[in-house]
Each structure stands twice: as structure tokens, then as C-alpha cells.
Amino acid sequence: MLEKGTVAPDFELNATPDQKIKLKDFLGKNVILAFYPADWSPVCSDQMALYNEMLKYFTKHNAQIFGISVDSGWCHMAFSNDRKLHFPLLADFEPKGSVSKAYGVYDDELGESKRALFVIDKEGKIAWSYLSPTAVNPGADGILDVLEELEKG
Amino acid sequence: MSTLKPEVGTKDHVQGSSDASITIVEFGDYQCPHCGNAYPILKEIEETFGDQVKLVFRNFPLREAHEFAYAASLAAEAAALQDKFWEMHDAIYENQYRLEEGLFDELAEALGLDLDQFAADLSSEGVKEKVESDFESGIRSGVNGTPSFYVNGTKFDGGATDLYAMLKESTE
């Protein structure tokens, strides 16, 4: 797993079937990458739903959040519509898991991303990374602590 | 391990003995079915452990996921201004199965609240701020779903039945 201080590997992934997101377009902004195993987790307060409620706190810290899993753009679109998510879900779909692998958070056995968080600073460097047990939703306190630190400079 | 931030204070709604050695804080959403299921178990905890426990409720409405969760939080906080927080809290959970926008006025009336005051408080800044600040405290405390429980300031890794079992064990 990539650690603090490493330059975040650039990527270009589909957010919807016809929209791509490039990490380097977000230089100058803090970026939160939330890798997660799969869409359609069967609980009402899953990790993405939780972050969806917290967007204004992220915005306050000049941060953009992206969810990333190996699900396809079409799957993300259906999931995102169903849960009324207001932030992009990126499809690490083709070649499968390549971004997750670049960040060192791919589970080869399951063929899914692990549950991992990265905060990338405005210069594109990893400011914090955290690997959560797959079954545990890591919440957002860690993310906010780092964003606050970054703000203090 | 995540800890409660800020600690229980004067703005919190507390039920139970002030001498209780165990403080349970719940971050809850009035529309969340898991919180609805936890509600009778928490009642049972209060009955079983009596003076040993006190209960605190903080709002954690998942507004995007649950249409009426935020309105319900506002209603309970507005009732609190007429000293009926727990009565409203209980009434909402007991009527969770028929939650809709008109329910809160009905419950306010049933609880004997001053309805004009209740309506004014529902849209007041103070009531909104209380709900927001509870939510923010939840984020800062590492809430990762509802309900989330904190026992004496430390996040409890489990649901209400686990909580009951843990208390049973630790007080025996």
C-alpha cells in the first residue's frame, strides 16, 4: 500500500460510461480516494452512503472525494442513482483493478479492491493512507483529521 | 479506537441517573430500521441496569438515504425546547413504521406541546444547529453507521444486543 509522502500515481477512469476523470486535473485541490470492494452492499449506512452525507464537510476543506471499485461504469451509475450519491464513483474496470494495484490495495484472491482510504494533497502527494479491515466501514474521522492538518500547513 | 468528541455535555439529552457509572451515547437516525430495532433493547437496558446506566441520544440523520430522518431530528429537538425530548424521541421510534411528514404535528399534539411554539421551533436556527452539531460530532467520533454506540466515551463495536450482553457480563 502506498504510504504518506509518495507521489500519487495518476490515472484516468470512467466516472460514468461517457465521462472520464483524470487525477492530475485535480492538482490544487485535496483529493480523497475511497477504494471499496463492491457496489450494492446490503446495509443502509454503508461507507459510500455515509460519505454522501458528509460532502459539505469535505468541500469546506477544499477536498473532492471519489469512490473507486472494480465495478463497471454502468453498475456505478445504477448504484449511484439508487443511493442518490452526489460524488463520482470511478470504475477500475479495464484493465481490471489496475489503479487499485498501483496503489497497493487490490485483493487478488477476491478480485476486488480492498477497503482503503487515501488523502492526496494539493501537490498530488499522498498525505495519508489507511487500510481498513474489509468488513469494517472506516468512517470519516481519519479523513477529516488529515484535511485539518493540511489546512494548518 | 475512536472516542467520543466532544464529551457528553450540557447540550446533550440525558436519561437516567446522574450518578450512573456507565454512560451510553447513541448516534441515531429516526428512520433507520436498525435504530428502530435497537430502541426496545435500549429500553430493556435501562430497565435491567437501572441506576447504573444513563443514556444520551445524538442525532445522526442520513438525509440522503432517509427522507424523513432530518425532519424527525428537528421535531425531537423542537420538543426538547418544551422539555419533551425523550417523549418525542420515544414516540417517533414507536411510530417509525408510519413515518411521514404529518406525523410530527400529530405526535406534538398527543404530547400536549404548544403547537405554535413547536412549529416556530421546527424552523429555528437553534434547532437546526443542534442537529448539525450532533452530526458533526458523530463524524469526528468515527460514527460509521447507525446506530453507533459509545460506552464511557469509547466506540462500542456492536449493536444494541451486543451492548446488552456486554453490560450483563460486566455487571455480573
- Total beta-strand segments of chain A: 9
CATH topology of chain B: Glutaredoxin
Overall spatial form of chain B: globular
Instruction: Quickly give the structural class of chain B.
Output: alpha+beta
For the largest sheet of chain A, list the strands in their spatial order: 5-4-3-8-9
Residue share in helix of chain B? 40-55%
Major sheet of chain A, described briefly?
5 strands, mixed
Order of helices and strands of chain A: EEEHHEHEHEEEEH
Helix content of chain A: 25-40%
Bulk shape of chain A: globular
Give the overall pLDDT of chain A as a whole number. Answer: 94
What is the class of chain B in the CATH system?
Answer: Alpha Beta
CATH-assigned homologous superfamily of chain B: Glutaredoxin
CATH architecture of chain B: 3-Layer(aba) Sandwich
Poorly predicted tracts of residues of chain B: none
Provide the structure class of chain A.
Answer: alpha/beta
Radius of gyration of chain B: 15 Å
Report the portion of residues of chain A in β strands.
25-35%
